[in-house]
Amino acid sequence: MDKHISDSNPPPDPGTPAPELTEVEEAVRTLIRWAGENPDREGLVETPARVARSWKEYFSGYGHDPAAILERTFQEVAGYDEMIVLRDIRFESFCEHHIAPIIGRTHIAYLPDKKVVGISKLARIVEVFSRRLQIQEKLTAQISSTISQVLQPKGVAVVIEATHHCMTTRGIHKPGTVMVTSNMLGAFRDSATTRREFLAMIGTPQTRAPL
């Protein structure tokens, strides 16, 4: 299987050298000056280096292959073939339009076909894709398609609820707004009963704690 078959925002071309750390820090200094501040004052002099380190953490997902995370599976499941649900997986990402935070939770379900995967691997898939510049619609589809392609289950369902700081702290300024996206594959798309069972398990946004 092509390791990047489900990865619609792969890492940059390896033939293109990454900027040097000094270039990154100078870019941050430029932004600080553009904001009207002095990057050489005491409180800001170390900020460019801190921002560079933060970006390495924020966007660490580019350094991992999401499909490889799911490759170790377990087949000794005593014939278990019912729905597996992992809900309320918290994530932090950044929108690719404003580089503003996206804070939310992901709910994942799949119907196994002879094999299952450790539940921490499902959470890691969310982590890898969220640690990239994203839009929520793409993030939802990437998680579901990767699980479907690697595990080849009877069906996959992913629902994401998130707040977008690009519209809560800037622009239209609407705090408390939650965006919900879903992607249903296989049995979850074909069977209304299966879909309802999954949605009943995760509940509704109004019944859960705020994001």
Structural notes for this entry:
36% of the residues lie in helices and 20% in strands. The longest helix is centred in the last third of the chain and has 16 residues, at 136-151. The protein is built from eight helices and five strands; from the N terminus they run H-H-H-E-E-H-E-H-E-H-E-H-H. The protein is an alpha+beta fold. The chain has a five-stranded mixed sheet with strand order 3-1-2-4-5. The protein folds into two domains: 21-58, Orthogonal Bundle (GTP Cyclohydrolase I, Chain A, domain 1); 65-204, GTP Cyclohydrolase I, domain 2. Mean pLDDT is 92; it is low at 1-6. The chain starts with 20 loop residues before the first helix and ends in a 9-residue tail after the last helix. It is elongated. A hairpin with a 5-residue loop joins strand 1 (84-95) and strand 2.
Question: What radius of gyration results from the CA coordinates?
Answer: 20 Å
Biggest β-sheet strands, sense, barrel: 5 strands, mixed
Q: And the CATH topology of the largest domain? A: GTP Cyclohydrolase I, domain 2
Low-confidence stretches at least 5 residues in length (pLDDT < 50)?
1-6
How many helix segments?
8
Element-by-element helix/strand order? HHHEEHEHEHEHH
**DSSP summary, beta strand count:** 5
Strand content: 15-25%
**Which structural class do you get from the secondary structure elements?**
alpha+beta
Strand order, sheet with most strands? 3-1-2-4-5
CATH architecture of the largest domain: 2-Layer Sandwich
CATH class of the largest domain, named Alpha Beta
CATH superfamily assignment of the largest domain?
GTP cyclohydrolase I, C-terminal domain/NADPH-dependent 7-cyano-7-deazaguanine reductase, N-terminal domain
Approximate helicity band: 25-40%
- Average pLDDT taken over every residue: 92
Shape: elongated
Number of spatially distinct domains: 2
- Terminal residue distance: 36 Å
